[in-house]
Structures are given as structure tokens and as C-alpha cells.
């Protein structure tokens, strides 16, 4: 007996919304700001729409950044020993993850890392300490090392030192720090679920001090911490409203020993849609694929660079990244090129 057409029919695939995302990109390129509803529709789009979303987002990326990729190098200058309880962090006071614990490194160690950053093609050296905020010894160490790194290697300096007051921000500006990283991490509504020892408002205030001191603001977040799609959209718009220059977007690496261990709800398509949404909302801002890309994007990492224009090269703070050569090969295979650092000054 022959089955009827109704019995053998497969479920109807949703129609790919190519025109919708193209029109959104055209609006952005014309100088319009997309709505929160539009941003949410990108983030929650069916996976079948990922390619047209990236294609439309690439037009925005190309307008402002062409085919360039800027590389960043992270240096964990002080590890562990943090009094805060950020639930995602292996260095927090409530983490039992077996991470190295040491106070701020000596000059020679910081200079050696700067040399590695320069040799790996990084344009920006990110000097990071685990702390609520820098103490006087740490501030003095940064003030002494930054001019030397810039003179010898020609690197831009991004300092990530925790919460800052206005005086500390002014001192960082005076010693040559180009930008300060202080991530919002999530939305204001979700913040109390991932940290209780400081507030979202505390983080925003630090960014305002950075801005008022005349430095660039670097701030982004982490996807995959139990937030809603609306939380992710809210963070993207808050970063836009603050005028943040550089946005690192991390994908949760749920490290064992942290309260968020076991959170593995992300997939590659979700990560790509999040990157694209941030590009639509922040069209001319540097967008960086950050921690967790190797874990969650996996073989689709190159696709992220169709909307993002920067990435970390080498390892992260307490987790390993992929080999730098794999990143260089990926960039070359895409037909992109690394934004070169200026020639290092002579020793």
C-alpha cells in the first residue's frame, strides 16, 4: 500500500529571512540605531538564519574595519587572591579551582610578557590583576612599567585593575595607559545573580572615571551565565550608551570549582548570533571574540570574524587558548590581515 503524501511529508522548514537582515544592516549603515526588539530578533533567530545574519553583519564590519583583525595579548600580572565573589571567576574568594596565586609580578616578568606580545603580532598588551581594585603598590608598579613597555615595544596598553576611583584613573592616564578594561559582564537586572560583593553601578562608575580621565573604555561581558536573551540585549545597549570603544565578548568557560561549573548551555550558533547582535547594536566599535571561543565556537571560530574584528592571541588568564599559529592561519585563510603594531623602539 502506498503511503499518502501527507504521511510522508517532512515538517516545513522555516523560510530564511535574508531580506530582513539585509534591510537591518542598511539601516545601521545609514546611521540608524536598531531597536531592542530588532536586536532580540537577531539573538533569538532560528539557526537557519545564521548565515544571512553574518552576511548582513559583515557589511557593517567591513564599513568600519575592512578586512583587518587586531590582536590582543593578556598578561595575568596578579593571580588569585581576589576578595570578590564573581561566580564565573576561578580567581574569586569563593572559587576552589586550582589556579596559581601570586602578587603582582616583578618588572622582568612583565617585560618578558610584553616581548612575547610583540612577537605574536599583538597591538595591545592587556595588563590584568585580580583584585577589587589596585592598592598603592600595584598602582606604582603599573606606573613604572607602562612607559617602559611602550618605549621598548610600541604596544598599546590596556589596564584591567578592578574598580577605580577618579584619582587612580587620572594616574593611569598620566603614565601612558591607553585604555582600561572593566567589563559589565551582564545586564543590570541579572548582575546580583553573579556577584554580591559589588554592584553593576560600581562597574559603571569605574567606566565613567576612565572616560573622564581621557582614556578609552574597554568593556564587554560573558554569555552563558544563566541570563535571558533580554539580558544580553540590555548589556549591548548599555555598552553603546556608555560610548565604550572596545567590546570583548566572552563565552562562559564553566571552570570546575566555581559556582557556575557545569553550565554548558551554549552552542556555536548562539555564540555567532550574539556576536552579530553586538555588531548591529555597536556598528563602529571594536568587537573582540574573547574567552571560551575555542570551547564553544570550535570549528566555527572563523565565522565569528565576519562580525568581530579583534581577538586574543595566546592564553587567557587561567585557561589555555589555541596555538597562535592556528589563529594566524585562520586569519589568513579568511583573506583577512592582522593590524600590525608599529616597529618596536630600539633597546
From TrEMBL:
Chain ranges of the Radical SAM core domain: 64-293
Pfam family membership, one: Radical_SAM
Reactions catalysed, as given in the entry: (4R,5S)-dethiobiotin + (sulfur carrier)-SH + 2 reduced [2Fe-2S]-[ferredoxin] + 2 S-adenosyl-L-methionine = (sulfur carrier)-H + biotin + 2 5'-deoxyadenosine + 2 L-methionine + 2 oxidized [2Fe-2S]-[ferredoxin]
Entry binding sites for [2Fe-2S] cluster: 126, 158, 218, 288
UniProt entry keywords in alphabetical sequence: 2Fe-2S, 4Fe-4S, Biotin biosynthesis, Iron, Iron-sulfur, Metal-binding, S-adenosyl-L-methionine, Transferase
Top-level taxon of the source organism: Bacteria
Family to which the UniProt record says this protein belongs: Belongs to the radical SAM superfamily. Biotin synthase family.
This protein's name: Biotin synthase
Annotated source species: Rhodopirellula maiorica SM1
Gene, per the UniProt record: bioB
Amino acid at each position: 500500500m502506498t503511503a499518502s503524501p501527507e504521511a510522508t511529508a517532512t515538517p516545513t522548514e522555516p523560510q530564511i529571512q535574508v531580506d530582513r537582515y539585509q534591510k537591518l544592516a542598511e539601516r545601521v549603515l545609514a546611521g540608524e540605531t536598531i531597536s531592542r526588539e530588532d536586536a532580540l530578533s537577531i539573538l533569538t533567530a532560528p539557526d537557519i538564519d545564521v548565515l544571512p545574519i553574518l552576511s548582513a553583519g559583515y557589511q557593517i564590519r567591513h564599513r568600519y574595519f575592512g578586512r583587518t583583525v587586531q590582536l590582543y595579548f593578556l598578561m595575568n600580572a596578579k593571580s588569585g587572591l581576589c576578595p570578590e565573589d564573581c561566580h564565573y571567576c576561578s580567581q574569586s574568594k569563593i572559587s576552589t579551582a586550582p589556579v596559581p596565586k601570586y602578587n603582582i609580578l616583578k618588572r622582568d616578568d612583565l617585560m618578558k610578557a610584553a616581548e612575547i606580545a610583540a612577537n605574536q603580532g599583538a597591538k595591545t598588551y592587556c595588563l590584568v590583576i585580580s583584585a577589587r581594585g589596585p592598592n598603592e603598590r600595584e598602582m606604582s608598579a603599573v606606573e613604572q612599567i607602562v612607559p617602559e613597555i611602550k618605549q621598548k615595544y610600541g604596544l598599546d596598553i590596556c589596564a584591567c585593575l578592578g574598580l577605580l576611583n577618579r584619582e587612580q584613573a587620572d594616574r593611569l592616564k598620566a603614565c601612558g595607559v591607553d585604555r582600561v578594561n572593566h567589563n559589565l559582564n551582564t545586564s543590570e537586572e541579572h548582575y546580583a545573580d553573579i556577584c554580591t560583593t559589588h554592584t553593576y553601578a560600581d562597574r559603571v562608575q569605574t567606566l565613567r572615571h576612565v572616560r573622564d580621565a581621557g582614556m578609552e573604555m574597554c568593556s564587554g561581558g560573558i554569555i552563558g551565565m544563566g541570563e535571558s536573551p533580554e539580558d544580553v540585549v540590555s548589556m549591548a545597549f548599555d555598552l553603546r550608551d556608555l560610548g565604550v570603544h572596545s567590546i570583548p565578548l566572552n563565552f562562559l568557560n564553566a571552570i570546575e570549582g566555581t559556582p557556575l561549573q557545569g553550565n554548558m548551555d551554549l552552542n556555536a550558533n548562539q555564540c555567532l548570533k550574539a556576536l552579530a547582535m553586538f555588531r548591529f547594536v555597536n556598528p563602529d566599535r571594536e568587537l573582540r571574540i574573547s574567552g571560551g571561543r575555542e570551547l564553544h565556537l570550535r570549528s566555527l571560530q572563523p565565522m565569528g570574524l565576519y562580525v568581530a574584528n579583534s581577538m586574543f592571541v595566546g592564553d587567557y588568564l587561567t585557561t589555555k587558548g589555541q596555538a597562535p599559529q592556528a589563529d594566524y592561519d585562520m586569519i589568513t585563510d579568511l583573506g583577512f590581515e592582522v593590524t600590525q603594531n608599529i616597529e618596536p623602539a630600539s633597546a
